[in-house]
User: Fold this.
Amino acid sequence: MGQYDSFADDLTFEAQVKSLADEELLDFWEETQQLVKMLDQEPNQDLSDFNPEYEKIILQELQFRNCQRTLR
Assistant:
C-alpha cells in the first residue's frame, strides 16, 4: 500500500504521486476519500485548513496513466 511521505524534503507531492505504482495510487486515493468522509463527520472539525489540491493531483495522474494505456 502506498503512502505519502510528508518528510521527504527533496520530493514534491506530485513527484511522490508519480512514483507510486497504479494499485498504490488507487489505494492512496481511496484512503484520502475515506479520510475526508471521517473528517466531515466530526462535529467540531474545522476543514478550512484542509487542502483539496491533493485530490486534483491524484486524479490528474490517474487520468494521465489511463490516456497512456489507451494510446498503446
Observations:
- The mean pLDDT is 82.
- The longest helix spans residues 22-41.
